[in-house]
User: Fold this.
Amino acid sequence: MTDMEYLNLALSKMHNGQWFGFSSKEQSYSTLIVHDSSITKPTEADVNAKIQEIKDAEQAAIDKKASGKQKLKDLGLDDDEIQALIGV
Assistant:
C-alpha cells in the first residue's frame, strides 16, 4: 500500500462516514480537512499511530500465515498439500 492509501485507511477507521477530505490533490496530513463539525481534526501523531497499528496488524497476519505454514511442514505436509489447504 502507498502512504496515501494508508492515510485514507487510517482516517476511515477513526470515524464512520465521509467525515474527511483534502484541500488539494496532494493527500497528506497537511491538506486534511474535516467535513463534520462534530469531529475534531485528529493530531498528526494520532493519525500516524493509527497507520502504524494497521501496518502492525498486516505484519502480524503475514507472520501468522508463515508460522502456520511452517507448523504444517513440521507435521509432514509438503508444499502442494499446504497450497491445497490454504491456497498459497
Observations:
- Helices lie at 3-14, 44-74, 79-86.
